[in-house]
Amino acid sequence: TGRKFDLLQPDPAQVDIRDIAHALGRVCRFAGHTHEFYSVAQHSVLVSRVCAPEDALYALLHDAAEAYIGDMTRPLKLALPAYALIERRIERAVWRGLGLAAPTAEQHARIKHWDNALLATEARDLFPPSIDDWTDALPHPLPGRLGRVLDPRQASYAFLCRLAEICDDCEQAPEVIRHALEKFSAEQGDEARRRLGQVCGM
Question: Are 47 and 158 in contact (CB under 8 A)?
Fold first, then answer.
């Protein structure tokens, strides 16, 4: 949308789910060290599909802050506590901006498990065999391969398609999200949205 976003003093009014989808589709996981481009948006969609249905919305949005600050590798993130503080502030602004309460500790723990399971799966499918076994502490990879890797535009589109799917199954979806999806549908057309969702197989 071109809307300004203050990283150090994030304002919920500056949050737009279309900006989040657009940016996450263009942010590559693992600092780009994969066989091919693989986006945070596609990762988020996959986490939302393997978790429990009641956690799907928060799973889809679990990396939403990275739309504004990028995807920092986990070892570096752990070494920079100031980054984690900024990330948490942005997360809180995203929840409020989208009309959501923060996920509970139990939800966070469940989503983190599936996030780590996808991390192990991505490491298996998108990297050459590791020589340092950095995935040993992670859950077992998911059965089956990741499937088709989406380009940035497809990944952003798939993210919004998945959001619409979740909201269609949730009578209490926040109005701000429904309104943004209505704008998206008006811009792209419902048939185009459904068609890409089928093509992506997501």
Answer: no
Q: What is the pLDDT of residues 76-122, one digit of tens each?
A: 988 998 999 999 999 999 999 999 999 999 999 999 999 999 999 99
CA dist., res. 63 & res. 111, Å (int) = 11
Angle between helices 175-188 and 17-24 (to 10 degrees): 60
> Counting every residue, how long is the chain?
202
Query: Model pTM?
Result: 0.89
Q: Is the dihedral of CA 43, 141, 113, 199 positive or negative?
A: positive
Residues of the chain by 3-state class (helix, strand, coil), percent to 5: 60, 0, 35
Distance CA 156, CA 93 (A): 21
